[in-house]
Amino acid sequence: MAPSLEQKISAFYDRSSGLWEQIWGEHMHHGYYGPTGETPKSRLQAQIDLIEELLHWGAVERGADILDVGCGIGGSSIYLAGKFGANVTGITLSSVQAGRGQSRAQRLGLADRVSFQVANALEMPFADQSFDLVWTLESGEHMADKAQFLQECCRVLQPGGKLLMATWCHRPTLPDYPPLTEKESEHLRRIYQVYCLPYVISLPDYQAIATTLPLTEVKTADWSSAVAPFWQDVIASTTSPQALWGLLTAGWSTVEAALSLGLMSQGFRSGLIRYGLLQGVKVADEVGNF
Questions:
Q1: pLDDT digits over 249-279, tens only?
Q2: Which of 98, 103, 131, 174 is a plausible cystine mate for 67, CB 3.0–4.6 Å?
Q3: Residues in CB range of 288: below 8 A, 6 or more apart
Q4: Domain range for residue 217?
Q5: What is the DSSP string of 194-262?
Q6: What's the pLDDT tens digit per position in 64-91?
Q7: Rg of the chain's alpha carbons, rounded to an integer?
Q8: Is residue 290 assigned to a domain?
Q9: Is this model's pTM higher than 0.85 or not?
Q10: Smallest Cα–Cα separation from 132: which of 64, 61, 73?
Q11: Region SAM motif II: which residues (predicted)?
Q12: Does residue 247 register a pLDDT over 50?
């Protein structure tokens, strides 16, 4: 029996997360290089700046109970817990990532406030209205049903709670822009295959989904230019002896992903790949349900 998408994603991150942490650190997401992507900085500082800029853009000033959807090995979860003194729950499909996140939280003395578990974001094991901030940093691209994903994020939010998402997108298409060309579709297909993605959608498509949910103050932004240099930084770092040895011992799927880093860099340069942000605040409906 062929493995499911969830099993493929889990296996991919089980194999690759250790190497990523060893070479690139605990933050498994893009970096922020200034609004136009021209501010020189280290990759790690850029990744931390992305978190801070996203919080600023989302006007997040507090968060007592936070859900980190697609938490990786806990980089954002631990950062948010420290910044806000918050209780943070991270979920991932990878048991390796969840275990590593938990061990890091324990080592840092945060195990009483930060926890990690294996869970499917399309069927979250949490009660309605459990969190006052749902933070999802580059996990939407892995979701097989984007509408269900946003519905679940909204369901677990408390009234007045905020959804803050950053995700890989493709460029806008109809009705305002041309449809994807065959060349663009093939480029995306190759990215899907390497990174275990079912498909990506445009930022306007995400916004359209959000407007069907009990969310107000829905806002989007395109930060493609700000994050595009990240891939060149990662490509440059793969030439170190440590990275080369790690790739050779990590298995073919990890090697394939490393060899395909240029697909993302090329996608940003051509305008096909976009980096989209979305936020919204949970509201009550007319009969008091949420």
A1: 666 556 566 667 889 999 999 999 999 999 9
A2: 131
A3: none
A4: 5-282
A5: HHT-S---BHHHHHHHHTTSSEEEEEEEE-HHHHTHHHHHHHHHTTSHHHHHHHHHH-HHHHHHHHTHH
A6: 899 999 999 999 999 999 999 999 999 9
A7: 18
A8: no
A9: yes
A10: 64
A11: 129-137
A12: yes
